Amino acid sequence: MPKPRKGNPLDGIVLIDKPLGLSSNIALQKTKRIFQAQKAGHTGSLDPLATGVLPICFGEATKVSAFLLSSDKRYVTTAQLGVTRTTGDLEGDIVENRDVPALDETYIESILKQFRGDIEQTPPMYSALKHEGVPLYKLARQGITIERKLRTVTIYNITLLAFTADTITLDVRCSKGTYIRTLLEDIGEAMGCGSHLNDLRRTEVTPFTGQPIYTLEELEALAEKGEINDTLLPIDSAIPHYPRIDLVEEEAIRLRNGLRVEREDVPEAEGIRLYYPDGRFLGIGQRHESGTLAGKRLMRTD
């Protein structure tokens, strides 16, 4: 018989404020320990030099983590102008120093407007993308450069928050797959001086806009008071944009048994939120090619 898992069988999502210097995986493990959870996973890594919103999924919520990977993000970031680095951020060696043009709001806006909407990016060598199973950053550390395909990403908005003689601080709202380091490097090249990322904070992950985020210290304090579970968001909070279907008991049983359900109201959608008659979340469904309702990612039932 398999050994029983250690920890609490929690189901839900908590938004942590990842601290500077920790990898996303270490932040995940620390959060899992604070909650004493059996199973946990994070959605969308943040580099150790970045801070901010990192959703942690517990238990059955890990089944919706893949849907969060494709969500839009928002960042506040500062670019150091006039200096390019091998990694595009503070960790890399200096490649070149160049003079920074005289900055004012009008000039900066004339540059930023070139980067709104759909743009193309070349993923950086210092990234977790893999080439033949090997992360690019490992190849980069060996001095190996691999040709990378251009990617189209969307910058929904980019706003100037502040600037000095050689820095700009921006608020960026963007689609999945956007490399902020690359965006800042490209902005620096458009200015003719180059740049690198000096600071990065993720402020939002769709669809959790406006939800509270917690530092690890705050979570530890709540755990000591027995209030830690109050921080958990329900599993279906990750997919509010999916259409909803409320099932009768017989339909729920059929879906749980791997069978399809005949209904007239099954929409064409990436996913469909399914609910028991009492309002509990059953999981994610989909429209079958026959027009019937089928299960796609259902939650465990005890």
UniProtKB/TrEMBL annotation:
Domain named Pseudouridine synthase II N-terminal: residues: 32-180
Enzyme's top EC category: isomerase
Signal peptide: none
The tRNA pseudouridylate synthase B C-terminal domain, residue ranges: 181-239
Molecular function terms from GO: RNA binding; tRNA pseudouridine(55) synthase activity
Keywords carried by this UniProt record: Isomerase, tRNA processing
Domain tRNA pseudouridine synthase II TruB subfamily 1 C-terminal: start-end pairs: 243-299
Active site residues per record: 47 (nucleophile)
One annotated GO biological process: tRNA pseudouridine synthesis
CDD domains: PseudoU_synth_EcTruB, PUA_TruB_bacterial
Any single Pfam family the record assigns to this protein: TruB_N
Reaction catalysed by this enzyme: uridine(55) in tRNA = pseudouridine(55) in tRNA
Keyword Isomerase carried by entry: yes
Enzyme Commission identifier(s): 5.4.99.25
InterPro entries: PsdUridine_synth_cat_dom_sf (IPR020103), PsdUridine_synth_N (IPR002501), PUA-like_sf (IPR015947), PUA_sf (IPR036974), tRNA_psdUridine_synth_TruB (IPR014780), tRNA_sdUridine_synth_fam1_C (IPR015240), TruB_C (IPR032819)
Job description of the protein: Responsible for synthesis of pseudouridine from uracil-55 in the psi GC loop of transfer RNAs.
Entry's family note: Belongs to the pseudouridine synthase TruB family. Type 1 subfamily.
NCBIfam families per the UniProt record, alphabetical: TruB
PANTHER family, alphabetized: PSEUDOURIDYLATE SYNTHASE TRUB1, TRNA-PSEUDOURIDINE SYNTHASE
Protein's UniProt name: tRNA pseudouridine synthase B
Species for this entry: Leucothrix arctica
